[in-house]
Amino acid sequence: MRSFQKSTILPALPIPDAVLVKRAQKGNTQAFEELVKRYEQRIYNITYRMLSNEEEAKDALQDAFIRAYRFIKKFKGDSSFYTWIYRIAANVCLTRLKQRKSKEQLTDSLDAPIAGEEDIQREIPDAKHTPEILYQRQQMSKALQDAISELPTDYRPVVVLRDLQGLSNREVSKSLQLSIAAVKSRLHRGRLFLRHRLSKYLETQSVGVVERNS
User: Fold this and answer.
1) What angle do CA 65, 68, 72 make, to 5 degrees?
2) Burial (0-12, 13-18, 19+ Cβ within 10 Å), 85
3) Which residues contact 33 (CB under 8 A, 6 or more apart)?
4) Alpha-carbon span 164 to 15, nearest angstrom
5) Which of 74, 68, 71 has the alpha carbon at shortest distance from 35?
6) What is residue 175's predicted lDDT score, i.e. its pLDDT?
7) For a designed S-S bond to 48, which of 57, 81, 158, 175 qualifies (C-beta 3.0 to 4.6 A apart)?
8) Which pLDDT band holds residue 55 (cuts at 50, 70, 90)?
């Protein structure tokens, strides 16, 4: 008697973004909701880094997807959906930053709270790391976000998109409608600003370590 092997049921592959976009363009709201689920965390990370304010970042996230839904039929597929949506989100944040600056409320952003673990994806702690090391990492992460929140508004979007989101100079140039030369200049100045702010933090930490060990 011939023996038959049991067939293995493979998990269904995720529907490609391009297919979901086509469906959304035809009015399928479930397809667009799936795109939102895929990218809302990554887009939130961008809006939070740029605005340094949890509630404002959530509002900007919502605005970005509302605009994307409104103009989804105009999306031609020349880039990935993620590239398209982060450009929309970046522009939403730039508008908010300009409005904030015009109302002379830039100083409010310096006291922006740090989002909780549920809002920004963190590195999963290694069990063999001591509580002190984990605490130092958390403090360094907070120091970095504080420094980013103090970046001048001309530099912050460039630094966030280039260094934190890993976009190329050309992609940042297209997203922010700046020349590549302007992107490089603002990136350089922004990095110097962050280096200066973080060096102060590291000096303070070093002094604390020496005092504890003395």
Assistant:
1) 145
2) buried
3) none
4) 28
5) 68
6) 84
7) 57
8) very high
Residue with tokens 């667009």: 32
Residue with structure tokens 């063999």? 128
Task: Decide if 163 contacts 151 (C-beta within 8 A).
Answer: no
Sign for the pseudo-dihedral over CA of 98, 101, 106, 108:
negative
**Structure-model confidence comparison of residues 137 and 153, the more confident one:** 153
Note the residue count of the chain. Answer: 214
CA 25 to chain CA centroid, Å, is 26
Q: Which residue has the tokens 């965390």?
A: 41
- In angstroms, the CA 39 to CA 29 distance is 16
- Residue 29: alpha-carbon gap to chain centroid: 25
Q: Which residue has the tokens 């008697």?
A: 1
- Name the pTM for this structure: 0.65
Q: Note the pLDDT tens digit of each residue in 86-98.
A: 999 999 998 888 8
pLDDT attached to residue 104: 46
For residue 154, how many other CB atoms are within 10 A of its CB? Answer: 15
Compute how many other C-beta atoms are within 10 angstroms of the C-beta atom of residue 90: 26
68, 179 Cβ separation under 8 angstroms: no
Write out the DSSP string of 52-90: --HHHHHHHHHHHHHHHHHTGGG--SSS-HHHHHHHHHH
